[in-house]
Design brief:
By secondary structure, this protein is α/β, with parallel strands linked by helices. 38% of the residues lie in helices and 15% in strands.
Length: 176
């Protein structure tokens, strides 16, 4: 009997959502599993991506290199981003259907949904119809109740204190 893949959500305002997802990807690959990894709202140039590229069992899909913070985007740029992420998600689903992956990481997909860059209905339909053995990990702040209802794991990472609050920007090797 095939192992049932479960759905994970790592959410909250604390640091560590992506770190948790990366850790699961490495654990899965270390156990001989195949992972598909995609980051929404990030340009793909972070240190974790550089490390994941070295692991044969992890397939990465390139991100949106020209992405800006949504508050710096025009309405036209937001529309372009939404079109891009809609197509990118279709590419992800096609890859999942082509290869027998054990795990799918959708980093920051929850934030992309909240910004209107990707339809929650398309994510929900995928999750309901995903391959039986596929483990799906999603990260981001403020997940929709419908997503939470489908999830098997929900971990909230709460910020108690963060250096950004006193003006220390993201640092290479730690936050990027």
């Amino acid at each position: 009997m095939e192992r049932k893949g479960l759905i994970h959500i790592y959410c909250g305002d604390g640091k560590g959502k992506t770190t948790a997802a990366v850790g699961l990807a490495i654990r899965c690959a270390g156990g001989g599993g195949n992972v598909l990894f995609y980051q929404f709202l990030k340009n793909g140039k972070s240190s974790e991506i550089a490390a994941l590229k070295r692991i044969n069992e992890i397939d990465l899909i390139d991100g949106y290199e020209d992405i800006k913070f949504s508050f710096n985007m025009t309405d036209d740029e937001k529309k372009i981003a939404a079109d891009y992420y809609t197509l990118k998600f279709k590419e992800i689903v096609n890859k999942i259907n082509e290869k027998n992956y054990d795990m799918l990481i959708l980093d920051e997909v929850i934030h992309a949904i909240n910004l209107g860059y990707i339809s929650i209905d398309s994510i929900l339909a995928f999750l309901i119809n995903k391959p039986l053995g596929l483990e799906v990990i999603m990260t981001g702040r403020n997940p929709d109740k419908k997503l939470m209802a489908l999830a098997d794991y929900i971990s909230e990472i709460v910020k108690i204190k963060h250096p950004f609050d006193i003006g220390i920007e993201a640092r290479k090797l730690i936050e990027m």
